[in-house]
Design brief:
Blueprint (H helix, E strand, L loop, with lengths): L5 H7 L5 H13 L1 H17 L7 H48 L1 H36 L2 H26 L8
The structure holds zinc ion (ZN).
Length: 176
Protein backbone atom coordinates (compact mmCIF):
# COMPACT_ATOMS: atom_id res chain seq x y z
CA UNK A 1 0.00 0.00 0.00
CA UNK A 2 1.16 3.51 -0.74
CA UNK A 3 1.29 5.60 2.46
CA UNK A 4 2.32 8.83 0.74
CA UNK A 5 1.59 11.62 1.10
CA UNK A 6 -0.37 10.71 4.27
CA UNK A 7 2.64 9.42 6.19
CA UNK A 8 4.48 12.63 5.37
CA UNK A 9 1.56 14.74 6.59
CA UNK A 10 1.23 12.82 9.85
CA UNK A 11 4.96 12.86 10.63
CA UNK A 12 5.28 16.58 9.96
CA UNK A 13 2.02 17.40 11.79
CA UNK A 14 0.91 19.24 8.65
CA UNK A 15 -2.06 21.58 8.72
CA UNK A 16 -4.53 20.06 6.24
CA UNK A 17 -7.14 21.73 4.04
CA UNK A 18 -10.62 20.11 3.86
CA UNK A 19 -9.83 18.12 0.71
CA UNK A 20 -6.60 16.72 2.14
CA UNK A 21 -8.42 15.91 5.38
CA UNK A 22 -11.04 13.91 3.52
CA UNK A 23 -8.35 12.01 1.62
CA UNK A 24 -6.50 11.25 4.84
CA UNK A 25 -9.71 10.04 6.54
CA UNK A 26 -10.50 7.64 3.71
CA UNK A 27 -6.91 6.33 3.81
CA UNK A 28 -6.98 5.88 7.58
CA UNK A 29 -10.14 3.79 7.27
CA UNK A 30 -8.19 1.14 5.33
CA UNK A 31 -4.62 1.60 6.64
CA UNK A 32 -3.61 0.30 10.06
CA UNK A 33 -0.06 1.67 9.68
CA UNK A 34 -1.16 5.30 9.36
CA UNK A 35 -3.88 4.88 12.02
CA UNK A 36 -1.16 3.79 14.48
CA UNK A 37 0.94 6.75 13.35
CA UNK A 38 -1.98 9.09 14.11
CA UNK A 39 -2.45 7.58 17.57
CA UNK A 40 1.25 7.98 18.33
CA UNK A 41 1.16 11.60 17.18
CA UNK A 42 -1.81 12.31 19.44
CA UNK A 43 -0.09 10.68 22.43
CA UNK A 44 3.11 12.64 21.82
CA UNK A 45 1.20 15.91 21.51
CA UNK A 46 -0.72 15.32 24.76
CA UNK A 47 2.55 14.43 26.53
CA UNK A 48 4.14 17.59 25.19
CA UNK A 49 1.20 19.62 26.52
CA UNK A 50 2.19 18.87 30.15
CA UNK A 51 5.76 20.05 30.66
CA UNK A 52 7.28 19.45 34.10
CA UNK A 53 7.20 22.43 36.42
CA UNK A 54 10.47 24.42 36.50
CA UNK A 55 13.00 23.04 38.97
CA UNK A 56 11.24 19.69 39.05
CA UNK A 57 14.43 17.62 38.92
CA UNK A 58 16.07 19.64 41.67
CA UNK A 59 13.04 19.40 43.96
CA UNK A 60 12.84 15.69 43.27
CA UNK A 61 16.48 15.21 44.25
CA UNK A 62 16.08 17.33 47.37
CA UNK A 63 13.06 15.33 48.42
CA UNK A 64 14.94 12.10 47.77
CA UNK A 65 17.86 13.25 49.93
CA UNK A 66 15.53 14.38 52.73
CA UNK A 67 13.74 11.04 52.59
CA UNK A 68 17.06 9.17 52.83
CA UNK A 69 18.10 11.19 55.88
CA UNK A 70 14.71 10.63 57.53
CA UNK A 71 14.95 6.91 56.86
CA UNK A 72 18.48 6.73 58.30
CA UNK A 73 17.30 8.60 61.42
CA UNK A 74 14.32 6.28 61.75
CA UNK A 75 16.59 3.24 61.50
CA UNK A 76 18.96 4.68 64.11
CA UNK A 77 16.09 5.29 66.52
CA UNK A 78 14.84 1.78 65.88
CA UNK A 79 18.24 0.35 66.83
CA UNK A 80 18.43 2.55 69.95
CA UNK A 81 14.95 1.49 71.10
CA UNK A 82 15.78 -2.14 70.38
CA UNK A 83 19.02 -1.97 72.38
CA UNK A 84 17.37 -0.14 75.28
CA UNK A 85 14.44 -2.51 75.54
CA UNK A 86 16.80 -5.46 75.14
CA UNK A 87 18.97 -4.12 77.97
CA UNK A 88 15.98 -3.52 80.22
CA UNK A 89 14.59 -6.97 79.52
CA UNK A 90 18.00 -8.60 80.08
CA UNK A 91 18.61 -6.85 83.40
CA UNK A 92 15.06 -7.68 84.49
CA UNK A 93 15.65 -11.35 83.67
CA UNK A 94 19.12 -11.48 85.21
CA UNK A 95 18.41 -9.32 88.25
CA UNK A 96 17.06 -12.11 90.56
CA UNK A 97 20.10 -14.29 89.85
CA UNK A 98 22.52 -11.43 90.44
CA UNK A 99 20.81 -10.61 93.72
CA UNK A 100 20.74 -14.26 94.82
CA UNK A 101 24.40 -14.62 93.89
CA UNK A 102 25.48 -11.50 95.82
CA UNK A 103 23.54 -12.58 98.94
CA UNK A 104 24.85 -16.18 98.97
CA UNK A 105 27.70 -16.74 96.49
CA UNK A 106 28.66 -20.31 97.47
CA UNK A 107 25.11 -21.59 97.51
CA UNK A 108 24.36 -19.95 94.14
CA UNK A 109 27.46 -21.49 92.62
CA UNK A 110 26.42 -24.92 93.86
CA UNK A 111 22.98 -24.43 92.38
CA UNK A 112 24.48 -23.22 89.11
CA UNK A 113 26.81 -26.21 88.89
CA UNK A 114 23.91 -28.49 89.69
CA UNK A 115 21.85 -26.91 86.89
CA UNK A 116 24.76 -27.24 84.49
CA UNK A 117 25.26 -30.93 85.33
CA UNK A 118 21.53 -31.57 85.01
CA UNK A 119 21.52 -29.79 81.65
CA UNK A 120 24.56 -31.70 80.41
CA UNK A 121 23.21 -35.10 81.43
CA UNK A 122 19.84 -34.25 79.88
CA UNK A 123 21.51 -33.38 76.59
CA UNK A 124 23.51 -36.57 76.73
CA UNK A 125 20.42 -38.66 77.44
CA UNK A 126 18.52 -36.94 74.64
CA UNK A 127 21.41 -37.56 72.25
CA UNK A 128 21.50 -41.25 73.14
CA UNK A 129 17.74 -41.53 72.70
CA UNK A 130 17.97 -39.88 69.30
CA UNK A 131 20.80 -42.22 68.29
CA UNK A 132 18.69 -45.23 69.26
CA UNK A 133 15.76 -43.80 67.30
CA UNK A 134 17.95 -43.11 64.30
CA UNK A 135 19.18 -46.70 64.38
CA UNK A 136 15.73 -48.25 64.82
CA UNK A 137 13.41 -45.94 62.87
CA UNK A 138 14.56 -46.73 59.31
CA UNK A 139 13.68 -50.38 59.97
CA UNK A 140 10.23 -49.57 61.35
CA UNK A 141 9.09 -46.81 58.99
CA UNK A 142 8.46 -47.92 55.40
CA UNK A 143 10.17 -45.99 52.59
CA UNK A 144 7.06 -44.18 51.34
CA UNK A 145 6.58 -42.55 54.76
CA UNK A 146 10.14 -41.23 54.47
CA UNK A 147 9.27 -39.89 51.02
CA UNK A 148 6.28 -38.02 52.49
CA UNK A 149 8.34 -36.60 55.37
CA UNK A 150 11.19 -35.46 53.10
CA UNK A 151 8.88 -33.90 50.49
CA UNK A 152 6.98 -32.15 53.29
CA UNK A 153 10.20 -30.67 54.66
CA UNK A 154 11.25 -29.61 51.14
CA UNK A 155 7.88 -27.94 50.65
CA UNK A 156 8.26 -26.00 53.87
CA UNK A 157 11.74 -24.92 52.85
CA UNK A 158 10.47 -23.73 49.48
CA UNK A 159 7.58 -21.86 51.12
CA UNK A 160 10.00 -20.20 53.50
CA UNK A 161 12.37 -19.07 50.77
CA UNK A 162 9.47 -17.78 48.67
CA UNK A 163 8.07 -15.74 51.55
CA UNK A 164 11.54 -14.35 52.30
CA UNK A 165 11.90 -13.48 48.63
CA UNK A 166 8.58 -11.62 48.66
CA UNK A 167 9.48 -9.85 51.88
CA UNK A 168 12.75 -8.56 50.49
CA UNK A 169 11.05 -7.35 47.29
CA UNK A 170 8.96 -4.66 48.97
CA UNK A 171 8.52 -1.71 46.60
CA UNK A 172 10.88 1.16 47.20
CA UNK A 173 9.54 4.27 45.56
CA UNK A 174 9.46 7.98 46.11
CA UNK A 175 5.98 9.38 46.61
CA UNK A 176 5.39 12.66 44.86
ZN1 LIG B 1 -1.04 4.37 5.19
Amino acid sequence: MNHQPFEEWLLNDKHLNPTEKRELDSHLRVCLHCTALTATGLALRSARAVPPAPGFAMRFQQRLAAQKIAERRRRLWGIIVLLLSGGVLFSWLVNPYVRAFSSAPVQSLTVAVGYFLYFATSIQALGETLLVFARVLPNIIPPYIWMIIISGLAGFGLLGSVSIWRFTRLPQGVSS
